[in-house]
Amino acid sequence: MFRMMTFTETQTPDDYPELDESYNSPPALAQECKSFKWKVQVIDSVGMIEENMLTTKDVWKLQNRQVIVHFDGDTGQPDEDSAGLLGSWLGQLSTDVNLLPINYSDGRLFPAHRKYLAWEVIKAKFWFDDPLIRKYYVISVLGSRCKDLKLRLWRDYHLNDRTETVENRPTNVPADQWRDFVYFRFSDKWKKDKTGRVPCRAEFFIATRMKTDGSFVTDDAKKCADQLTPLLNQNSSSQVSSNVVASLNDEYSQVFGPECSGRIRCIGRGPTPSKLVKRTNQARYEAYLTANAEVVQMKTKMTSLETQVESLTGIIQQLLGNKTNDQIRLW
To answer: How far is 228 from 238, CA to CA, in rounded Å?
Structure first.
């Protein structure tokens, strides 16, 4: 029975493994650990801090010691080498399908006790200055990594037929999870953008606030969508050609206002307004180069055509001159 859209758990399973015993090595589905080492600070159970060069694999082996994660005061995001190590390790944790099953189509349906346990696993390996504040960011990153895993599994194992795909189950993925996952991906509710164009922020907002029947989740969402739609229609041609997700004065910012410092709405945690300025200027510069290149190409073609016309004119004149001379000799 297909249950991916509504599958929930109301009780914490009794067979959850002990953290110290089960989380000392990467999950079976994790991609191979890289040998790259990050320079980080490690704190032990009595508060002693020392610097270490650690790989992702080393983090799994930590016992009664945690990697200190440093956060930028302005952006509220991890920085320095601890950020890279945390992100890489979360990518591996996301592949633990026993802890984080893949048969959930929506993070809002994900059981709270599983998020709680995932956070406990993370805190056993990493130290945060304010866990209550940092939890939201870290769990959101973990959620993104879980989506990446689903994309990777679908890319590597899906076939043209639903039944064949169910049978082509990856090793270490439970049969019920894989079946639910495949049934959802083959359902009508799973729509893909086949145009190859990345949706802009306004399009993303409308798509994520609209139900399958065409209605909106709230009246406020509908009001915002009603403001965004005509702006998108006005700029539809430039939107297709530029393929820019966000810009300083795009449709989204016209409706919701300018960005605050530290983050850009609707495009993830990494980009910041200062980067958006650079990206906007770069997009404009690239557009200028493209237009300028087209002009240069047209001028080159015109010059080539003019040269050909001059050459043909000379040949015609020469032919006419020879014909005239022949007529004169005949007289």
So the answer is: 15
Contact criterion met (CB below 8 Å) for 173 and 29: yes
- Identify whether residues 103 and 154 lie together within a single domain: yes
Residue identified by tokens 């099953």 is 101
State pTM to two decimals. 0.58
Same domain membership, residue 292 and residue 150: no
The identity of residue 132, as a single letter, is L
Q: How confident is the model at residue 257 (pLDDT cuts 50, 70, 90)?
A: confident
* For residue 3, pLDDT beyond 80: no
Q: Please give the residue range of the domain that contains residue 318.
A: 191-331
Cβ–Cβ < 8 Å for 57, 26: yes
- Environment class of 301 (CB within 10 Å of its CB; exposed 0-12, middle 13-18, buried 19+): exposed
pLDDT at residue 33 in the model: 66
Domain assignment of residue 244, yes or no: yes
In terms of Cα–Cα distance, which of 231, 177, 174, 171 is closest to 201? 231
Assigned domain for 10 exists: no
Q: Is the pLDDT of residue 194 over 90?
A: no
Please give the tally of structural domains in the chain: 2
Residues 54 and 136 in one domain: yes
